[in-house]
Amino acid sequence: MPRVPLLGRLSFRDYVALIFGFSFLALESFLHFIILFLPKPVIDWFYRRSRVLFHRISAARPKHRSEEKKAADKVLNARDFGELCNLYGYTHEEHVVLTKDGYLLGLHRLPSKMGQKKSNPGSSTGRPVVYLHHGLLMNSEVWVCLTDAERALPFVLAELGYDVWLGNNRGNKYSKKSIHHGPNSSKFWDYSIDDFAWHDIPDSINHILEVTKAKKLSYIGFSQGTAQAFAALSIHPALNEKINVFIALAPAMSPPGLSAPIVDGLMKASPTLLFLFFGRKSILSSATMWQSILYPPIFASVIDRSLSWLFNWNSVNISTDQKIAAYAHLYSFASVKSVVHWFQIMRNAAFQMYDDDVMSPVTRTTVSSYRPARFPTRNIVTPIVLLYGDHDSLVHIDTMLAQLPDHTVAKPLHTYEHLDILWGKNVHKDVIPEVVDVLRCYCTAEDEQTESPIKSNGLVVA
Question: Signal peptide location in the record (predicted)?
């Protein structure tokens, strides 16, 4: 008798959710197909109608736009990282890294202060180097799509004299190329967190150190950008010698799960269901289509409701104008496989490598004959500082600290959720000063490791 993988593992409610999910995705895919063939005037008409509808059902429009609203409109309409930097007078550099397995990754660099331009691009500045890496379904734009420069961490660091670099994962807007496979091939998207750890992070860091001639750099990650560093540092001992401090913003390692019980239960029961829903290429690729036909406040409202349903995030620390501006730059392409990997991690409550043995029968014995390899994160030597929101549903700090070395320092941010750490209205008061203080503890003019005054003994520092 042939084995049905889902039989006995899903409840009746899960099957109903499965059928509903397939129906919704089928309808969404049909609409996406139709819209692809619509001429631009028709798409513009839909956009205008959504704008009219929004203003009819919302409060009266203010007669005078605030300064934040004006800035938000400029950020919203900026097409890429370069235009976002230009809004605030920064000149950026673009670099390309070829990973050992053939992907071409885009790197962005801010080598000078506002209004200044480096006379010899692509060379060393002699300044301390800081590398920032984004989260899941994001790209480097999320760091600079703020409505004022003082809340944008890369701009603040550039003003303080740091040589600032921003990375991009394979497959996203700035790294959608490989020397082996095109992005229309499923082989191009056959990667998980393992590949970020084995190749993207260490290869990007090696390129940066080669260009800057620095011995070490400081690493700042957000969300999955922290998970990629945890994984990379744990499997590359030599990488620990190249990073003087690792600052993890909204750290992600083994999240407890989603707040939507049906989705959480369904995906944990069988993470590979995502392959049935979305195929084996990029996930949520139609997001850009919906963004093009919906009025920005409506699109922002859809994102808000989705985040509330999936993660119980209310985003009260992010202003409405900031949401409208930033959500336009939030989404970037990522592989379905990398999201499947996250649900495997959630299901097993362990920060493990991708489980290729997904079709093996579920064991009913007390001792399992198979366990996916785990990232040996307790072996990390690099100093680690965690900055996490105490209202972030994806962070279980005690579980995380149990998987990290004793020298890890953890600092809670009161009332902060996940995205607040990037775009909150008070990040220039609550988050950025913490980051700057840590960098000053570990960065010297010679870019050498010094003993930090921060002492943790494995305890959470309030």
Answer: none
Classify residue 38 by its DSSP letter.
Answer: S
Residues involved in catalysis? 223, 392, 418
**Alpha helical stretches, state H, 4-113:** 12-36, 40-57, 67-77, 81-87
Whole-number Cα distances in Å, 2 to 7, 67, 269, 290: 11, 64, 20, 41
Q: How far is CA 15 from CA 4, 5, 11, in A?
A: 14, 13, 6
Q: How far apart are CA 224 and CA 252, in angstroms?
A: 6
Euclidean distance between CA atoms 105 and 438, whole angstroms: 28
Mutual orientation of helices 261-269 and 336-348 as an angle, nearest 10°?
A: 90
The residue to which tokens 């994102």 are assigned: 303
* Cβ–Cβ under 8 Å, residues 325 and 423: no
CA distance 70 to 149: 14
- Retrieve residue 262's tokens: 């049906």
pLDDT digits (tens, 9 = 90+) for 214-259: 999 999 999 999 999 999 999 999 999 999 999 999 999 988 877 7
Distance CA 39, CA 17 (A): 35
* Structure-token pair, residue 7: 């039989």
Between CA 51 and CA 295 the distance in angstroms is 5
CB 58 within 8 A of CB 300: no
Radius of gyration of the chain (CA): 22
pTM, 2 dp: 0.85
Q: How far is it, in rounded angstroms, from Cα 325 to Cα 56?
A: 22
Residue (of 233, 208, 236) closest to 131 by Cα position: 208
